[in-house]
Amino acid sequence: MSNLSNTMLTPTPNSIRALQAISIALLTTTAGASASLSIFLVPRLMESPTPLMVGQFLRAVSSARRRLTIPLILPGILHAYLAYLVPVKARMYVIAATLTLSTLPWTHFAITPLNRELEGRIMTLDAEEFETAHQLVDSWATRNLYKPVVNFAAGIIGLYAALW
To answer: Cα–Cα distance between 3 and 131 in angstroms, integer?
Structure first.
């Protein structure tokens, strides 16, 4: 019990607080940005003519990939480091890191194939392809929701660990 009491009374160093704040801020803001692609952008794109929709979708995804990849991965690394620095909270930080980093294989196996298929179809869109393109974009939007959900959950776990 005295070990736990001493841990609770010892103030957390500013360097650890900074890592906690950065990881929480990145996770929650990028979760919102990623969710907005599925919730706001894709439904508006679906209203566009198919060739325009596919082109805009691919440009939006490319832009999001450039801007969000590091902010989506960095918190996983920070949480893993926090697990090392704060052993008493390691379990929560490992869970947060695992959730965050799980978006990498998810993106590789569930989302990248859809992007490649759409890139291939953009050149040969005919009436039949229009329906398929809409289905692919809709499927992408649904699969993309994994990332903001797990990143938001990891952010909440990180926040809990920081406040506990």
So the answer is: 63
Helices (H) and strands (E) in the chain, counts: 9, 0
Q: What is the pLDDT of residues 8-54, one digit of tens each?
A: 567 889 999 999 999 999 999 999 999 999 999 999 999 999 889 98
At 125 the three-state DSSP class reads coil
Out of 85-89, 124-128, 130-134, least confident range: 124-128
Q: Are the C-beta atoms of residues 143 and 113 closer than 8 Å to each other?
A: no
Contact of 21 with 79, CB cutoff 8 Å? no
State pTM to two decimals: 0.85
Q: Judge whether 4 lies within some domain.
A: no
Smallest Cα–Cα separation from 55: which of 135, 123, 114? 123
**How many independent structural domains does the chain possess?**
1
Domain of 82 in residue numbering reads as 14-163
Q: How far apart are CA 131 and CA 127, in angstroms?
A: 7
The three-state secondary structure class of 112 is helix
